[in-house]
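re: ur msg from earlier - yeah i can do the NAP complex, just paste it... oh wait u already did. ok heres what im feeding in:
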Amino acid sequence: MNRKWVVASRPEVEVQAHNFELKQELVPVVPPGAVLVKTRYLVVSPPARMALVSGGIAGRPIPIGATMRGSGLGEVVESRHADFAAGDLVAGELGWQQYAVSDGARRRPVRKVQGRSGLADSTLLHVMGSGGATAYFGMTVYCRPRPGDTLVVSAAAGNVGMLVCQLGRLQGCRVVGIAGSRGKCDWLVNELGCAAAIDYKAEDVGERLNQTCPDGIDIYFDNVGGATLDAALARIAQGARVVLCGGTSQYNNDLDWYGPKNYFNLVYKQAEMAGFYVFNFADRFEEAHSRLAALLENGSLIYKEDVLEGIEQAPEALMRIFRGDNFGVQLVKVAD
Ligand SMILES: NC(=O)c1ccc[n+]([C@@H]2O[C@H](COP(=O)([O-])OP(=O)(O)OC[C@H]3O[C@@H](n4cnc5c(N)ncnc54)[C@H](OP(=O)(O)O)[C@@H]3O)[C@@H](O)[C@H]2O)c1
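and the outut:
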């Protein structure tokens, strides 16, 4: 049997358990030209909330009754596709389910991936997946760090943020992380080498940015948008780069975004603000992943996984992200 989560209703604000329904069906029959993939892990990330209402970058929400969208890592258990064989490891749009049928391209696209010796296969969903590529291209193409730059990172203890903090430090930046608990802030300073960390739930972000960035912010890597983006914009240095990766603080209200009011500081400081989409760099992912793998292997880069067990935990994983309960990348382990 295949257990899968379908969209039952649209959240009004926060995602709730009743927005999903767990269904059971026979494992689908594999048509010619397709493969059957058994899901091992899902990675759960904030844009899943937008997929339920505005539709996010896809521009249309997931229909009611359809399988919830989600990236995963799995193993081909049956292949009727010339390019895949049983036993292949694949990653891609598997959905929140135990078994997915993919034609490798249009219908639930997946691509073959290969674990690296010494690295857990789960890294293929974060450091060696799109999270790692996001951090890498966001930093190299958009942030363009210079030694001595002050780099501020929001959602700094999450999947993308934890990697951005470390890549910044390795490039000689002074890194200030923003996160939602004392424990996360201590980890940012003690384990990731941030110069300082701000607990935005307990501290005044503007005041703490004044203290920790006395010469202004050269680079702001934004994962949350909203009031934190505004606080950063008010404190940018001459020629700063403000890089919009995500806007998690706004995803629960994604039909009515908060507009930053301090944007004109970009003019006063002759600074730039740019958004980017990681899949525009899909043909360069190997470059990102080979560099990140080398950093993992020589111990310069670390990561933290937060793993829930069982397909039944997928909605809870998404709700944890918006409560800030995930510490590191949020995974759901579906099968060994
Ligand atoms: N542009 C791209 O191509 C691209 C690619 C990948 C990801 N992204 C974006 O990057 C961002 C980070 O993604 P991720 O997968 O690495 O997620 P993540 O950081 O692992 O998880 C989200 C974190 O956001 C924080 N958060 C939740 N609600 C918040 C709120 N209201 N205000 C401020 N912070 C809040 C929580 O941490 P705290 O405890 O710190 O609150 C939570 O742990 C997301 O916005 C995502 O959409 C963009």
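cool cool. The chain is about 25% helix and 25% strand. ping me if u need the other ligands too
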